[in-house]
């Protein structure tokens, strides 16, 4: 059993446990750490703000079972096993983000020289490396000159100050961590973005009000690079169903919003109306999927031009056409969702349509498929070409994609019905999750995008397509093994029952710290 030293904060522990503070003052224990080592760790008390027992157990159901059966304490599991397995101690440290941003550390971890958390705790924070996407060392020091002075005197690190003092003092980015407890949904018919609680399903209000910044028919929500200098990831939203050059409402664009407040920042990708002979968007027409690539650039599927367009990830400037459709089976016909895999391959869902005269033409009978592009050669292969779901109207329309954080499989939503799970390496179909939450035959609901929450559960959204249903949406949830995970009182996979505040919802996104 390890002694709690590096992760233990005496002041935090005593202020959080007044009974222990009293016991220490009357001599029953020599210190807070004395109590934690003997009792606190087994009682589920937190040794510091950096290790949160509730968070750790929520994220790791196998550990929760072991703790419930008194086989081990949560803190001991992290120290003995968890940090070596890449598990996070709290939402203040994100292992995958840390390794992605620090490839030298990733090499050391791969060689079993150190764990990601130990590197940050012993070295990284002193080198001003950031522990997650929410905490930006540079921004924190710039906004808090008193902290910068203390860091300059080697009294503590910026992150150490934030954990011990800044959180209680409500210094930025305290507000940012609140978004970890929400997820966003884009309403195509409502022209807005709303928020929900991933644990209870409670509606938390509008995140982006209707038409803010010109938002129109949002279909894809993507967290990406900081655009307003606050050191926190911002939200990039696909908008519009008309050509980017259109002077009417609904001109195609990628709009950028503050990732925490939803405040409009700018039109990141779009045409400038004061240059009538130039289309700065490169021909963007009905943007659907978008993804930031390993090269730092933004890739956007232009559905009504059958193209994937590439833009500078910092400025939004058009670079080139990465790929275009060929009106043949296996081609880029009606591109929709985009996703980069860990090996830097670009996965694209296609609907099987051909863009003609500003509309999607399905008359050629082309299949809806998942394509896999080599980023260097731009050559594509067919990853998956599924048959229609038995519950569908007899067609396939692949849309959203997500990689399972635990099984590393590729999950693909079918607008017509179902979520399919594929082996990311072989392309073999491993299973199908039913999304027919209306229990009709054929299914009277369509399915939008999907996303994994920080708890490992899979969330998807859908809406009722019947004429009298007004495209009212619902939210579905599945656990990490793909089983329906209902809320109390709900059936099947329904997490949020049909709600009038969901109007033809398509996009969904979690903020990953």
Protein described:
The chain has 513 residues and is α+β, with helices and mostly antiparallel strands. Helices cover 19% and strands 28% of the residues. The protein has a four-stranded antiparallel β-sheet, with no helix packed on it. A four-stranded antiparallel β-sheet has the order 4-5-6-7, with no helix packed on it. It has a four-stranded antiparallel β-sheet with strand order 8-9-10-11, with no helix packed on it. Strand 14 (354-356) and strand 15 (359-361) form a beta hairpin. Helix 1 crosses helix 2, helix 4 packs across helix 5 (61-68) and helix 7 (95-101) packs across helix 8 (103-110). The protein is globular, with a radius of gyration of 24 Å. The chain starts with 9 loop residues before the first helix and ends with a strand. Residues 486-491 have low confidence and may be disordered.
Question: Biggest sheet, in brief?
Answer: 4 strands, antiparallel
Total count of helical runs of at least 4 residues: 13
Number of strands: 26
Helix content: 10-25%
Structural category: alpha+beta
Distance between the termini: 30 Å
Q: Going across the major beta sheet, what is the strand order?
A: 3-2-1-26
């Amino acid at each position: 059993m390890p002694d709690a030293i590096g992760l233990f904060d005496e002041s935090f522990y005593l202020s959080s446990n007044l009974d222990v503070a009293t016991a220490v003052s009357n001599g029953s224990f020599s210190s807070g750490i004395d109590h934690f080592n003997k009792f606190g760790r087994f009682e589920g008390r937190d040794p510091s703000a950096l290790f949160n027992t509730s968070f750790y157990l929520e994220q790791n159901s196998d550990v929760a079972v072991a703790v419930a059966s008194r086989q081990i304490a949560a803190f001991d599991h992290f120290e003995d096993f968890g940090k070596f397995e890449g598990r996070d101690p709290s939402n203040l440290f994100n292992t995958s983000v840390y390794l992605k941003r620090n490839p030298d550390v990733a090499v050391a971890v791969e060689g079993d020289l150190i764990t990601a958390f130990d590197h940050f705790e012993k070295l990284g924070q002193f080198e001003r490396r950031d522990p997650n996407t929410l905490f930006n060392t540079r921004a924190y020091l710039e906004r808090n000159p008193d902290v910068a002075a203390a860091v300059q005197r080697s009294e503590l690190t910026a992150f150490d100050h934030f954990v011990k003092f800044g959180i209680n003092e409500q210094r930025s980015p305290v507000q940012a961590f609140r978004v970890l407890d929400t997820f966003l949904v884009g309403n195509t018919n409502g022209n807005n973005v709303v928020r929900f609680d991933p644990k209870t399903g409670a509606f938390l209000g509008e995140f982006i009000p209707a038409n803010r910044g010109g938002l129109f028919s949002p279909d894809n929500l993507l967290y990406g690079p900081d655009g307003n200098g606050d050191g926190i990831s911002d939200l990039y939203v696909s908008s519009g169903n008309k050509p980017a050059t259109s002077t009417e409402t609904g001109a195609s664009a990628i709009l950028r919003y503050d990732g925490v407040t939803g405040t409009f920042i700018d039109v990141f990708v779009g045409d400038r109306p004061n240059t009538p002979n130039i289309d700065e968007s490169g021909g963007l027409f009905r943007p659907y999927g978008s993804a930031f690539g390993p090269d730092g650039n933004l890739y956007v599927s232009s559905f009504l031009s059958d193209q994937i367009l590439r833009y500078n990830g910092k400025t939004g400037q058009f670079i080139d056409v990465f790929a275009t459709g060929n009106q043949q089976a296996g081609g880029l016909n009606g591109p929709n969702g985009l996703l980069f895999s860990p090996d830097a391959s670009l996965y694209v869902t296609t609907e099987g349509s051909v863009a003609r005269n500003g509309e999607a033409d399905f008359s050629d009978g082309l299949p809806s498929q998942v394509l896999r592009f080599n980023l260097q050669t731009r050559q594509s292969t067919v990853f998956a070409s599924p048959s229609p779901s038995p519950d569908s109207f007899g067609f396939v329309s692949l849309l959203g994609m997500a990689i399972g954080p635990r099984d590393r499989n590729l999950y693909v939503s079918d607008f017509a019905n179902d979520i399919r799970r594929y082996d990311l390496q072989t392309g073999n179909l491993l299973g199908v999750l039913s999304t027919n939450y209306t229990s009709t035959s054929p299914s009277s609901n369509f399915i939008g995008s999907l996303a994994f929450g920080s708890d490992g559960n899979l969330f998807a959204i859908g809406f009722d397509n019947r004429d009298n249903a007004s495209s009212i949406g619902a939210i579905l949830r599945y656990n990490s093994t793909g089983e329906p995970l209902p809320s109390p009182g709900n059936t099947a996979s329904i997490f949020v029952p049909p709600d009038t505040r969901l109007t033809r919802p398509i996009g969904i996104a979690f903020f990953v710290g």
